[in-house]
């Protein structure tokens, strides 16, 4: 089916129909195409850990609806996806991002058999504080992580651009060039004890959808509970949260 597909899927779900009706333009029925990850411009790296960097993974026609339907969290950071926070286009995108087809395509590129068998946890970020982005590997409860960026533009700065790193103590020891968090850029990596990544401090709007394939359903419930608590905490104490780590070092790291 074409990426800006005109053909109807076998079972159109309510979010897709709502997105179509609202957009009043071309029906965007296929937001993600698993084959797009196989294009030659996708960078696939296996050492020191497996990751991929892909561009142009979202259709141009979907920019407006994905923009308006993005959740409006009052605080900075990643929060567990809740359908009520998002408009139809974002919910439809998340359905695709967590589908076995996309998991299979990402897993194949990262050398992970049957990635689709693992439970997914989706978290979404609309804005960052300067404390975010310190170097880390992601926690052991994750098999793999994908980050899909949705920013219409990005300033001419390294701040907030994702870096895959060789070590925990240097934000400059990069494996490949940093990735601007622009609309349609997608990265994914296999979590390991050396899957170091992070970015220079950035404060302000920075839209990202994160999918983690987790080791178990228990981890999913635990992380979801923790994420909801953090959302409430930040709502109440957002100013404190902003101040914590506002002056963090560029090379700072955290466990997780
Ligand atoms: O937002 C990003 O680019 C990276 C986020 C991240 O690594 C995380 O939340 O674990
Ligand atoms: Fe991470």
UniProtKB/TrEMBL annotation:
The entry's keywords: Iron, Metal-binding, Oxidoreductase
Gene Ontology terms for molecular function: metal ion binding; oxidoreductase activity
Signal peptide: none
PROSITE patterns: FE2OG_OXY
Record domain Fe2OG dioxygenase: where: 108-216
Record has Metal-binding as a keyword: yes
Regions that span the bilayer: none
Source taxon at top rank: Bacteria
Xref: InterPro entries: Oxoglu/Fe-dep_dioxygenase_dom, Pro_4_hyd_alph_FE2OG_OXY
Similarity field: Belongs to the iron/ascorbate-dependent oxidoreductase family.
Designated name of the protein: 2OG-Fe(II) oxygenase superfamily protein
Organism encoding this protein: Dokdonella immobilis
